[in-house]
Design a protein that fits this description.
402 residues
């Protein structure tokens, strides 16, 4: 006589996330790197084409609000009534967002906007990445340690090519940014106009837009991102900045000259990560994650991990075992071929290949890999970004036309 089994189902260890399941940026058709090529193609500037189709305009202004992700904007209609009213205009009237690129971080995104190239081509593939020439980490936002900007990013900007083609081209931003290396290699071309107040920037951007029959104007505001990092996107300080930038956007829109298109976009979104050991995993205190690692680059939500010689495979295996249920973890060539840094299968420029980590880890869940000893300031940030989740990756492309 047999009896039914009382044993439970067989226990299986959870499988790590498949790195190929990460939601990719829409390089070539709907990412930040497609915006300016589409805009200047509509002006008749030769040599440009884009999979992103935008209605032509003689005068184009791009207003980039640092840190204003699509999901955050949709969630705050009361604080941003003007911007929220434009959601239906996004992405050529489809009401859909753009994607940033990977990682969704300022230096990478601004380079994508200004050059019209994905990160694997322009070569700023993270917040900090390895400089193969020195073996040291290079902070691409602060440009430390110094390296020749035009060796690091040799391609001309869209602004410069438009200016060469006879388009009146300028940038209107904080005076602090005029001579930075990031501005030189990502946003230069035409004339830089430094203005301290947001109101002055909006007024001058509108005036410059009307200064010629064909104009390309870029303007920028940073403090939505700044307050998010310091206080979080669930703070009164962040909401106050959102209210202020909403007024700035309206001010600019109301001054547009005829035959203009204003595009309001962002470089990334943001997510608040709790200050708990489970949510903030400290690399400096975790012997497993440190084993075989020579340099930890990137940022808390998007890590470039550089292995000591011969240890790359072991580091990849350990990071997948420890973090694979919460993060997409890929080897360098896996991430490149999957399309993290450019269109799938397109590869990256030779000079960029070794800047990318031997292991690349992007957070899916509400976790961060901090480094409290080696990155004390970054580890204190409340709001973070960098990965491919919708709250970080999706950005608006709001449009106003005259």
């Amino acid at each position: 006589m047999s009896y039914p089994s009382t044993a439970g189902p067989a226990w299986h260890e959870p499988a790590p996330l498949d790195f190929r399941s990460a939601p990719l940026p829409r390089y070539g058709s709907g990412s930040l790197s497609d915006l300016l090529p589409a805009a200047v193609a509509g002006m008749g500037v030769p040599g440009f084409r884009s999979g992103l189709e935008l209605a032509p305009a003689d005068r184009v202004c791009v207003f980039l609000i640092d840190g204003l992700g699509w999901e955050l904007l949709r969630a705050h209609p009361a604080e941003a009534p003007f911007l929220h009213s434009l959601l239906g205009s996004s992405l050529n009237g489809t009401g859909a967002p753009l994607t940033a690129g990977f990682p969704s971080t300022t230096a990478t995104s601004l380079a994508s906007v200004g050059t019209g190239l994905p990160p694997g081509a322009h070569g700023l593939p993270g917040y900090t990445v390895l400089d193969p020439a020195t073996g040291e980490l290079m902070n691409q936002l602060r440009w430390r340690p110094w390296t020749d900007p035009h060796h690091w990013q040799p391609y001309p900007t869209v602004f410069r090519l438009a200016d060469d083609a006879g388009v009146h081209t300028c940038q209107v931003s904080s005076p602090d940014f005029e001579h930075t290396p990031l501005t030189r290699i990502a946003l230069s071309g035409g004339t830089f106009h430094g203005r301290l107040s947001g109101e002055d920037r909006m007024d001058l951007a509108a005036a410059q837009l009307g200064a010629a029959d064909r104009s390309l104007v870029y303007t920028y505001y940073s403090e939505v991102d700044g307050k998010g990092h310091r206080f979080g996107v669930d703070s009164e300080e962040w909401r106050g900045q959102l209210m202020y930038v909403d007024l700035l956007a309206r001010r600019l829109a109301e001054q547009l000259p005829p035959r203009s298109a204003l595009y309001i976009t962002a470089d990334h979104g943001m997510i608040d990560i709790p200050f708990t050991p489970e949510a903030r995993i400290d690399f400096d205190e975790d012997w497993e994650l440190r084993a075989g690692v020579s340099r930890l680059g990137g940022e808390a939500r998007a890590r470039h991990v550089y292995a000591v010689p011969g240890a790359a495979a072991d580091v990849l295996a350990v990071w997948r075992e420890v973090l694979g249920e919460q993060m997409w973890v890929a080897g360098r060539d896996e991430a490149i071929e999957a399309g993290w840094f450019g269109p799938p299968g397109a590869g990256v420029d030779d000079r960029v290949h070794a800047r990318i980590g031997d292991v690349v880890a992007a957070a899916r869940d509400d976790v961060a890999i901090v480094a409290t000893e080696t990155e004390p300031n970054e580890s204190k940030m409340v709001g973070l970004h960098g990965s491919m989740t919708p709250v970080e990756q999706l950005v608006p492309l709001l449009e106003v036309r005259t």
